[in-house]
Write a structure and sequence with these properties.
By secondary structure, this protein is mainly alpha-helical. The chain has a domain of 140 residues. Helix content is 49%, strand content 9%.
Length: 202
């Protein structure tokens, strides 16, 4: 069991969903196990804490794998807004957690422009000999990650599915204006998950 816990640490959120299906557990169980395992490794000195350039900061690295077509549309949307993809992804998450707005739908897999996509990093690596490149990552506080897990439980889905929906809504223009999303760095988010569940949020 210990080996499997350590293995979850390096997996992306999409990989965690696959692992959860394979072993028959809810994805948030493995997501929480990953956060705990990482904290144990940091305390034991086995890995450096993830974070920004501030000493001793610890953040959760959220990673979303995308189909190539969606990834290119996403990068175009970030460029249109004048920010990099990482900042836009983090800011979408923050704005979503602060508000009461919900995406038009929360798909279990990538569906865009009437086409369904399956992202299989292992197949890409076997075919190209390199890591799957169409991914976006951003640092968020652990409290924000826990808030995403809680929001997923409310909706009966996973954090990755929620963020997948946020990305699709953004590139489809449902969050169209640059002023509708406040761009934040990691320090602009909350590490207290309860602040994202205040009854007057949004």
């Amino acid at each position: 069991m210990a080996a499997s816990r350590w293995g979850v640490v390096s997996a992306s959120d999409d990989d965690v969903e696959v692992m959860a299906r394979e072993i028959g557990v809810q994805p948030d169980v493995l997501l929480e196990a990953r956060v705990q395992a990482l904290r144990e490794r940091v305390r034991a000195g086995r890995v450096q804490p993830m974070g920004d350039k501030k000493a001793h900061s610890q953040h959760y690295q959220f990673e979303l794998l995308m189909p190539e077509e969606v990834f290119r549309a996403w990068k175009h949307e970030a460029q249109r807004r004048g920010v990099d993809g990482s900042a836009l992804l983090r800011s979408l998450i923050h704005s979503y957690l602060l508000g009461t707005w919900q995406p038009t739908e929360v798909p279990k897999r990538w569906v865009w422009c009437g086409r369904g996509y399956t992202v299989v990093p292992r197949e890409w690596k076997a075919a190209h000999g390199s890591r799957y490149p169409f991914r976006e990552r951003c640092l968020i506080p652990p409290g924000a990650q826990r808030a995403l897990v809680r929001r997923g439980r409310e909706l009966g889905t996973t954090p990755s599915a929620i963020v997948r929906a946020l990305v699709l809504n953004a590139i489809d223009g449902l969050w169209a204006g640059p002023g509708t999303i406040t761009i934040v760095d990691c320090t602009g988010m909350y590490d207290d998950e309860d602040r994202y569940f205040h009854p007057n949020r949004g």
